[in-house]
Design goal:
This protein is an alpha+beta fold. The chain has one domain. The protein has one helix and six strands, in the order αββββββ. The chain has one helix at 2-19, and strands at residues 29-31, 37-39, 54-57, 61-66, 69-71, 77-78. A four-stranded antiparallel β-sheet has the order 3-4-5-6, with no helix packed on it. The termini are far apart.
Length: 83
Amino acid sequence: MKKKNYLLATSIAGIALISCDSDLCDKGYTQLDNGVCVPDYVVGIEQHSDLGNIFYHSKLGVIKFNQGQWFDDNNRIIKNLND
């Protein structure tokens, strides 16, 4: 009986640890504070519009692409994403 209880407790603890993963996004995506996963902006790689117009930049944070311009989270135009 003790073996069964130990096995059950170990299984429950393992499941709890797996389900408590703080980053639920796939590789190449970043989870925002609201829980939404957005693709990471990668310099030199063409961004696909089918993924949406919001990306995560490693230095600037959330950036948006709209009508040929990049904008930061405060809606200011970003002149150079590579700085």
